[in-house]
Fold:
Amino acid sequence: MDLAKYPFLAEAGAYLRDKGFNLEQLGHPDWAPLVDKAYGRIVVASSGQIYGSDSRLENPDMEILSFIVAVILLKAASVQTLTRRFALAEARRAERYLQQDLWSSKKSLDLPLKIIRELFGVEVSVESDEFVIRVSDYLKRAVHFHEKEWKLVNRRVGSGHVRLTAHETVRLIRTELGQYINSRIQAVSLPQIPEAFQARVRDLVSLASRFSDAVVVSSDYPPCVKHAIEVLEKGENLPHSGRFLLATFLLSRGQTTDQIAPLFKNAPDYNERITRYQLEHISGASGRGTKYSCPSCDKLRSENLCFAVPECDGVINPAQFGKRRPRPNA
Ligand code: SF4
Structure:
C-alpha cells in the first residue's frame, strides 16, 4: 500500500523480480491495460494535472507497475519535457499522500516523517498536532517563496524551530520531491523493451511535439524573468506580480499569447481559460486595448522579484536588459 502511494521508492528491477515478473512478460497482450494505464499516467502529467488513483488504492500492484512502466516508456521515448512534467505531477501526487498521512492518525506518521528525513534531510517533530522543524531547514526552502505568510517574521518561531501545518510541511519540500523523482528516473538504465511498448513510445514522441510551440527561453533574458520561468517550471506558485512581469516582458520581446500561455501550465492554480483571458488583456487584444508595459526594476525590487547581476547595471526596466545603452556623456 505504501509503495502504491510513493512508487518512486520502489527499485523497479527488484520490485518486478519480487513479484515474479520480467519486462518481457509485461509485453504480453494480457498486460495491455497496464501499458495503457502507464501511458495515461504520462498524458495526464503532460497536461499539468495530477494522475488520480482510486482513493483506496484497491489495486496497489497496478499503481506501482504503471509507474514503473511509465518510467520505462519515458526513458525509451527520451523526451525531457515529458519526463520533467511527469516527475512534477508525480511529486504533486505524492505530496497529497504525504499530507494525508501527516494529517491522519499517529500510526501513519512514521513513513512520511521518514521520507522527509531520509530523502531531504529535514528532521520533523510533532508537538500538539503541529509539525516543528529547524529554522535553518525552513529558511533554506522558504526563501524561494514570495507570499507574505512564508516570511519568518510571520511564522511562530521558538527555540530555533518553526511550527507548521501538515500542508505547509509538505509544501516546503515540493521542489525537492520533484527533483528526487526526476533523478530516480534519470538513474534508470533502459532495458530491452518489449515490442508491445513501442507503439506507446511513438505516441509519446508525438505527444511531446505538441509542446514544441512553447515559449523560447533565451539566455539573454534578465535574471528576474529567468527566475519567474524556473518557478513555474518547478510547479511553484508564482505571485501575480511575477506572472505580470513574465507576460509583459515576453510580449515586449515579440512572443505571442499562444506561445506564452503554456508556460503557466504547471502553476498550481492553472486555468487555461483565465490564463488566456489575462494574457489577452495584458497584450491589449481585449478590454480597452491598453497594452501593459513591463514593470520597472524598482517595483520588482520592492516585490522581491529582482535577482540582479552585474549585467543589470544601468538597467531600470527588464525590457532594457541585454540591449545596448548609450554611455553616459556619450
Ligand atoms: S535589475 Fe531589473 S532586470 Fe535585473 S534582475 Fe532586477 S528587475 Fe530584473
The beta strands are 125-127, 130-134, 157-158, 161-164. The first helix runs from residue 2 to 5. The first strand starts at residue 125 and ends at 127.
